[in-house]
Amino acid sequence: xxxxxxxxxxxxxxxxxxxxxxxxxxxxxxxxxxxxxxxxxxxxxxxxxxxxxxxxxxxxxxxxxxxxxxxxxxxxxxxxxxxxxxxxxxxxxxxxxxxxxxxxxxxxxxxxxxxxxxxxxxxxxxxxxxxxxxxxxxxxxxxxxxxxxxxxxxxxxxxxxxxxxxxxxxxxxxxxxxxxxxxxxxxxxxxxxxxxxxxxxxxxxxxxxxxxxx
Length: 214
Prior knowledge:
- The chain is an alpha+beta fold.
- The chain has 2 domains: about 5-55, no CATH class; about 75-210, Roll (Pnp Oxidase, Chain A).
- It is built from 7 helices and 7 strands.
C-alpha cells in the first residue's frame, strides 16, 4: 500500500488548479501582488517535484520496482559542491541557530530531533537538528550532504552519540550504511514534508542507523 509520501505528489494536478484559481481571484481583487503568487508557486513546485522522488519507481505493470543502490552513490559535481556550500550556510548559520535552542529545551515539535556527536578535532559536543527518525530501538538518519557533513565525519571518528527526541535523551552507537538505499529509507520513514525539503536542499544522501542503548 502506498504511504502518504507516495500519494502526496499525486494531488499536484487537482490542487494546482484550485490554488491557481484562488490566487488569481486574489490578484484581481488586489489582495495579493503577482510577485507573491509567482514566488510562492515556485517554492511549491520545487518542493512537490522533489517529493516526487520519494515515489517508488514502477515497471510497465505499474508495480513498484527496486532501484540499484549504486545509482544513489553519485557524488555531486561542481554545481553540487556550490549548492552544498550555499545550503550549509543557510542551515548552519541561519536555520539551526533558531531550531537548535528550541530543541534543546524541548519546545520544538517532535517532527524534528537533535543529535549530539563528539567533535573529531575539538572533542566537544556538537549538536545538529535532524528529522525525527526514531523507530523502536533505532534512530535513523538520512544525511543531506553524505560524507561531507561534519557530523558524519564525527561519527566516523567516534560512533558513540546521543539523540534527543522531545524532552528525552537517548545514548547509542551510530553505524553508517553505505549499501542502504536512502530514497527507499525515506519512503519507509514516511516524512514527506521533511524529506521533500531534505532532497531539495541536499546534494548526496547517506543512511545512518543509531542503535540505541536499552
